[in-house]
């Protein structure tokens, strides 16, 4: 599943392939491409950036194409004569230069427009947690304004801070020992800041590549504390990992009911102190 670290890696790959090169054709099955793709044809790519879970390709003349990868999207870079392992009919956006082809598969969102307009869309996002020093005080302020009923929903709210998807959500809550159903209103600012500081560190540690890990081990099957491990023993206490589906989008959260107790009324008053 694409999260903030995945997007930064994709931006590096797509940028290496496209920056400084002229777009010979812009095609794809997304309706935005059919409608506006020709606006990009013939333009030179001037930059590629990842902001949260958005990937932006900028061209001369002030145009930008934005993709959001949702749950399933991905970017692939191919040599012009390389065989496609996925059917071209599934390509939502194909940016072709004389030297390389960048293809975005399965992205639910593709927008083509003036750079200023696209930046306005992205500007509603919270600070990017992959940045060097995300402003935790700003993030906590935005968290207080969020309508998210649980911390699990809060971490996925990209208007608070961007970059956390379903994997990091579960892993951050385990490492910070918080039950996913905890109400953000029951947590003080220090605990909220600690959640986002943890998410920042995990995302940054995984930007450079390889198997994504939160445990420090990059071996598949050992790389996560709780994500995807329902019914298996907690790596810390041995209790079976639980999974809960909740929130607006019915996203699953994995957690250890022993290591991540819900704050009780008494501990809550201590927390809020
Ligand atoms: Zn445990």
Question: Oligomeric state of the chains?
Answer: single chain
Task: Enumerate how many helices there are, as a single number.
Answer: 8
- How far from one another are the termini? 38 Å
Order of helices and strands: HEHEEEEEEEHHHHHEEH
Ligand kinds: zinc ion
Structural class: alpha+beta
CATH architecture of the largest domain: Orthogonal Bundle
How many strands, what sense, and barrel or not for the largest sheet?
Answer: 4 strands, antiparallel
Biggest sheet: strand arrangement = 1-6-7-5
Could you say how many structural domains there are in total? Answer: 2
Overall strand count: 10
How would you summarize what this structure contains?
By secondary structure, the protein is an alpha+beta fold.
General description of the model:
The protein has 273 residues and is α+β, with helices and mostly antiparallel strands. The protein has helices spanning 4-18, 31-36, 115-123, 136-145, 151-156, 166-175, 189-205, 265-272, and strands spanning 25-27, 45-51, 54-59, 63-68, 74-78, 91-96, 101-105, 109-114, 242-246, 251-255. A hairpin with a 4-residue loop joins strand 9 (242-246) and strand 10. The strands form three sheets. A four-stranded antiparallel beta sheet has the order 1-6-7-5, covered by helices on one side. A four-stranded antiparallel beta sheet has the order 2-3-4-8. It has a two-stranded antiparallel ribbon with strand order 9-10. It contains eight helices and ten strands. Helix 4 (136-145) crosses helix 7 (189-205). The two termini are 38 Å apart. The chain folds into two domains: 4-123, Alpha-Beta Barrel (N-terminal domain of MutM-like DNA repair proteins); 136-272, Helicase, Ruva Protein, domain 3, CATH 1.10.8. Helices cover 30% and strands 20% of the residues. Bound molecules: zinc ion (ZN). Residues 234, 236-237, 239, 256, 258-259 line the site of zinc ion.
């Amino acid at each position: 599943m694409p999260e903030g670290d995945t997007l930064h890696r994709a931006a590096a790959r797509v940028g290496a392939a496209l920056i400084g090169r002229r777009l010979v054709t812009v095609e794809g099955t997304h309706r935005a491409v059919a409608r506006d793709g020709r606006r990009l044809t013939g333009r030179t790519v001037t930059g590629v950036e990842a902001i949260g879970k958005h990937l932006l390709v900028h061209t001369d003349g002030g145009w930008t194409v934005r993709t959001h990868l949702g749950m399933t999207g991905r970017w692939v870079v191919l040599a012009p004569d390389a065989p496609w392992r996925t059917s071209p009919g599934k390509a939502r956006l194909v940016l072709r230069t004389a030297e390389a082809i960048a293809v975005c598969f399965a992205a639910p969102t593709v927008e083509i427009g003036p750079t200023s307009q696209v930046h306005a869309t992205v500007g509603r996002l919270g600070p990017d947690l992959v940045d060097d020093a995300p402003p935790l005080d700003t993030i906590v302020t935005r968290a207080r304004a969020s309508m998210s009923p649980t911390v699990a929903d809060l971490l996925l709210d990209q208007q608070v801070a961007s970059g956390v998807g379903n994997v990091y959500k579960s892993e951050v809550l385990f490492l910070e020992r918080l039950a996913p159903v905890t109400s953000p209103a029951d947590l003080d600012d220090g605990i909220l800041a600690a959640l986002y500081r943890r998410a920042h560190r995990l995302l940054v540690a995984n930007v450079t590549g390889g198997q994504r890990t939160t445990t420090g081990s990059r071996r598949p099957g050992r790389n996560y504390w709780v994500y995807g491990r329902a019914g298996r023993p907690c790596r810390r206490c041995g209790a079976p990992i639980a999974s809960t589906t909740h929130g607006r989008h019915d996203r699953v959260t994995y957690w250890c009911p022993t290591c991540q107790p819900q704050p009780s009324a008494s501990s809550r008053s201590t927390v809020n102190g």
